[in-house]
Amino acid sequence: MARIQIDKNSSRKDVIVSKAAALFREKGFKAASMRDLAESVGVEAASLYNHIKSKTELLHELCFGVANRFMHKIDEVESEKVTALEKVEHLIRFHIDEMINHYEEVYVSDREWKHLSDPYLSNFQNQRRMYRKRFAAIIEAGIKQKEIKPIDAPTAVLILLHAIGGIESWHRSTQKISAEALTENMVSMLVGGLVNK
């Protein structure tokens, strides 16, 4: 019987969650089966149940793993003694880094969360709403301090997040610029566009 291959920094469950993210991104949560996942991991389907209860549990892990990282980051950024514009930049850099380095998890969290069921669905939606409100509050503080041009903050957050979500096409591009160049270009455009000149 094949065993799940792990490295010293990850557990078997980590490997399963990572492979599930790739599979759910490729096929969608509904279409992906436990048999597909077992094949991807390199074990019999029955062996997966030694590490996880269900496909739904994997979706919970992925969605809330990403949501919790974002919440932890905004906690950190809100407490920084820097300008509102710098806080926005720190959040944008974090979002870009997540899209580049944890693309499949972020993609699944952003697209497949609708397959969660309550109470998880409501909890996840509340976390998303709260995150966006907190991000908008940082922009509003910058507007009050006249660092950021007078714009509608919730709309600005949606535009920023959708722009960063577009990094998905960078992953598929055959003529990629480097991740560093992508980050600096995006920060220049997104942060630069908010500056109150």
Question: Which short descriptors sum up this protein?
Answer:
2 domains, mainly alpha, Tetracycline Repressor, domain 2, elongated, 197 residues, 10 helices, Arc Repressor Mutant, subunit A, 0% strand
Describe the structure.
The chain has helices at residues 12-27, 34-41, 45-48, 55-78, 84-101, 103-111, 120-144, 153-165, 167-172, 179-192. Helix 1 crosses helix 4. It has 2 domains: 12-48, Arc Repressor Mutant, subunit A, CATH 1.10.10.60; 55-192, Tetracycline Repressor, domain 2. By secondary structure, the chain is mainly α.
**Low confidence ranges:** none
Structural class: mainly alpha
How many beta-strand segments? 0
The number of helical segments is 10
- What is the H level of CATH, i.e. the homologous superfamily of the largest domain? Tetracycline Repressor, domain 2
Measured between the Cα atoms of the first and last residue, the distance is 65 Å
Secondary-structure element order, N to C: HHHHHHHHHH
Overall residue-averaged pLDDT value: 89
Strand content: under 5%
What is the radius of gyration computed over CA atoms, rounded to a whole number of angstroms? 19 Å
Q: How many structural units, i.e. domains?
A: 2
The CATH architecture name of the largest domain reads Orthogonal Bundle
CATH topology of the largest domain: Tetracycline Repressor, domain 2
Largest sheet: number of strands, sense, barrel closure: none
| Helical coverage, percent range | 55-70%
- The CATH class of the largest domain turns out to be Mainly Alpha
